[in-house]
Model the fold of this input.
Amino acid sequence: MVDLNDISLFVHVVRAGSFAAAGRRLAMPSNTISRRLQALEAELGVRLLQRSTRQLNMTAAGREFFERCAPGLEDIEHASASLTESSGEPSGSLRIAAPVDFFDNFSIEWMHEFMRLYPKVQLEFVLSDGRADLIAEGIDLAFRGGNLPDSSLVARKLVDSHRGLVASPRYLELFGTPHTLADLAGHACLATSQAPHHTTWKLEGPQGLESVRVNPRLCVNTAQGQLRAARAGLGIALLPTMLASEDLRNGTLMHILPDYQRDPMGLYAVYVHRRQLPTAVSALIEFFADKLERGIADKGEQICQEHFAREEAAKAGAEKAASAPPRRVGVEKAVV
Done:
């Protein structure tokens, strides 16, 4: 009869990607794991894994076996966790997937605060710009930005951040400030490395949705890279105001063409659909939602609104001064 513990080992090895990594997580010698999986394969009469000195891959039979077994094993693990958590505070180990620049956008100090609030929770962040397979990689929670494709996963939107045009004072001093959207065609712009596919920017303006084809002199495939390039005066960038908030505050970047902005880009908490979400996952989601709802991470929106208000006030003042009748200047007679 097949040993269910060996099936659990197989699932853990696939998630970890190697015997050594699974052994570190399970505190078990890798040669013991390998021997037990060989016994499982002998019991089943099929090869589940293709082993080599460099990598470990599933066979077709192994993939089918994993896809059938992993969800059930996950249900058992979380059912056990739920029973433990129901009598106390959130606990356990969470494996979290997030973009590479996640902690450039959100303070690492938040994790210090979270772990102080929930000392029985251990966090493992897997930072990658690739889309993690939550089930195959054993991911409890993923933070993802942008528009999400339809899937069987559950997604909760945490925050929206509009994207606006920014440039450094140095760049604007050297090359001038664009006054219309069409002016961008004559400026150095910063785009993703997917250019030229993304050299047409579509922005919402006073006349509705407008497009302009820009000249991407420099392409960088991360928002943080574009932010640093804009800060260095290398061109105009279209960035989330959330990301550029600190630079807008201290003046290292200026908001240009404030009447134009791109559709908001959402940040989502994504997890596998489960009947009962582990309390540690719920606690982390609520923690981030609270931070973002209070505007801690999206200060750029407030800064831009204040910037717009100042510009409108200055514009109204200039128009009022221009329309006012000229003041007569007379010479008063001296009183002797």
Q: What stands out?
A: The chain has eleven helices and 13 strands. The first strand starts at residue 49 and ends at 51. The CA atoms of residues 165 and 256 lie 6 Å apart.
